[in-house]
Amino acid sequence: MDKKLAQDDSVMFERNISVIAAKYREVEVTTAAGDKFRGFISGLDDCHLQLCQTEDQTFVLVQRPYIVQVTETGEILTEHTRLSESQTKRIKDRVRMFHTVAEKFNGRDS
Q: 21, 88, 93, 107: which sits with the fewest CB atoms below 10 Å from its CB?
């Protein structure tokens, strides 16, 4: 039996995204064109990463092949320093389903 430590890049990406999403952590996503998006992960498919943007709580789709960096900002949704209670609730409502999926993917049920 051959053992292999290296994983396919899409497998690594999905695993890392699920860990971040399961903890309600804010991220900044940078694309190859230099665009930056800041928010909370609300979805993932084969082609896109979906964020609920912190600033205005709107959704943005970022094409996965063009993502060059995903950085945690250090902010957690429930302790975010720049959000009002209503903004926090709006974001939580928009990311809750993916948060639950990510927790189950990582073997943790909420």
A: 107
